[in-house]
């Protein structure tokens, strides 16, 4: 049996309100990132996230301007807040979704996914530290950061998949009730 997530203690109403507020916050934080970081800097930073060796990092950093380094530092600092808000929003939505499914399996899947989102937050924070070290001294931090990134994207995919699955289940349930 999967241990219940602390968010399981919240009422359904509190869960929905908190998830909605955090979801709106994610949108606002995304808009702030888009406003303060140029498309060119975003492309350079995305390339760094995909670099898998110290040599690749060194080659990428050679092309960076001081403005790109400032943007990167801003994004890493901002990412701490963004990850906490975003992953807790997803965790709350999957907890709520697990309840909506109405089975023990649904609740357990919601709890498991919520725990995964918290683990994702911890690994993403480690990833940010690894990237900060990587821009100062490329060895061995890029590999550690990439390992964290792989898990981060997989857990994010899992969380979004559960949210979409719950939404489809809710739509099918609503559609069946309406048809009767």
Structure description:
- The chain has one domain (11-174).
- The protein is 86% helix and 0% strand.
- It has six helices and no strands.
- The radius of gyration is 19 Å and the shape is elongated.
- The mean pLDDT is 79.
Salient structural properties:
180 residues, mainly alpha, 6 helices
What topology does this entry show?
Layout: H1 12-36, H2 39-50, H3 54-62, H4 66-101, H5 104-136, H6 141-179
Question: What's a concise summary of this model?
Answer:
This protein has 180 residues and is an all-alpha fold. It is built from six helices and no strands.
Series of H and E elements: HHHHHH
Mean pLDDT figure: 79
- List how many beta strands DSSP finds: 0
Whole-number total of structural domains:
1
Structural class: mainly alpha
Count up the helices.
6
Q: Helical content, roughly? A: over 70%
Intertermini distance: 36 Å
Characterize the largest beta sheet: strand count, sense, and whether it forms a barrel: none
Poorly predicted runs of 5 or more residues: none
